[in-house]
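Human: I wish I could look at a protein chain and see how it folds. This is the protein in question:
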Amino acid sequence: MNVHDLDSKTVTVLGAARSGVAAAELLASRGARVLVSDQQPADLLRQSIERLAGKGIAVETGGHTDRVYDCSLMIVSPGVPSNAPVVLRALEKHVQVVSELEAASWFCPCPIIAVTGSNGKTTTATLIGRILGDAKKKHVVAGNIGTAFSSVVLGLAETDLAVLEVSSFQLDHCETFRPDVSVILNITEDHMDRYNHSMEQYAASKARVFMNQRDNDVVVYSADDQWAAKAIRTAQCRTLPFSYHRSLKEGAFAANGTLVLSLEEKRAAVIPLDQISIRGIHNAYNAMASVLVGSLFGASTASMRNTLRNFKGVEHRLEFVREVNGVRYVNDSKATNVDSVWYALQAFDQPLVVLLGGRDKGNDYSRLKNLVRNRVKLIIAIGESAEKVEQAFKEQTRVVKASSMDQAVRTAANQASRGDIVLLSPACASFDWFRNYEHRGQVFKELVEKL
């Protein structure tokens, strides 16, 4: 199925959240007859139901009926697992199943920059967007970042650029999606509950970002990440690496404390690493990937240097909230896996009080134990995984459990001393106590503001 044969076709969209609603509206605007189906009860989806009904789009809630299979195309939202019974049955019935990202890409008239990785996607996609904006390049930033690609794609012109944050879940059901430039920041253990605890399966999912790229396309990747470096061996397009640990003939790298760009036999010192406004080694990697992409689309070294000095990061990612009685509070709610927390702990020299836990995704905490022993004075274990967190770290530092975010913040405030950092960096999904990681971070910030 393609953009030319949607007229009067029947389409089912699974999921009535942001991307599902946007996909339904996009396909309906192109003549498809659309049914949106969601397992949640109607009272939790009132806004979506009203919006879709206003467009004449049918909605069912409270579970998926057999109506969902009466279609020639099924669109799955990122929150719907690839192995969900409703998806597997649709495939058995030979229904074409694609992601919202795939469907939206059918209508995109302009170059696509697709950013994926276990960590840093949001920061890097946002930073690329800022680099392009500062270089006067018209663009949108969308995808997994919170703005569905389907909601903006029809407003794009051929001369625009689409910067997309892309998750493995979105890539799982892509068929023809072909970015002009793809970025693989890293591939580290995450979502093991969804990939049968197989890093090979997870890495293969990430590698789908470049599976349709050809000679004139580019994949930017971390040469320091073993899974990313292994994955790009199958790429059929130009490859551009970045590295923190070694110089490269072509790509971006750190040398003598400076971010260096080397392209087409021209080298440029972009910026001293300590002048990049977002801190930490992980953000040095994000900056290297971003300047490679920016340079491919004509951003000057001077312009990118200015952007890196002034870019303040994104909400919920090592976001400074406020200082109270000499204690600094940092919201890292977007740290939903162990690797993200590892980078967060590396980013601070001060003693840490860490709020850690939530809905576990098959986490292995062993990588964090030395850092916790050396840097963390107290862990406040939260959410469904509080017991697992306590058992994982009780030998490395003191651990106490909290039964709510309010109790966790108050405990942190009582236990922290002047000069400490209180860090919300959960390593887990948020769906036990909150709607999403944004909601978790917002509640944390509101409670800190009340201290």
Q: What stands out?
A: The CA atoms of residues 114 and 150 lie 15 Å apart. The chain has a mean pLDDT of 92. The domain at 103-310 is CATH 3.40.1190.10 (UDP-N-acetylmuramoyl-L-alanine:D-glutamate ligase).
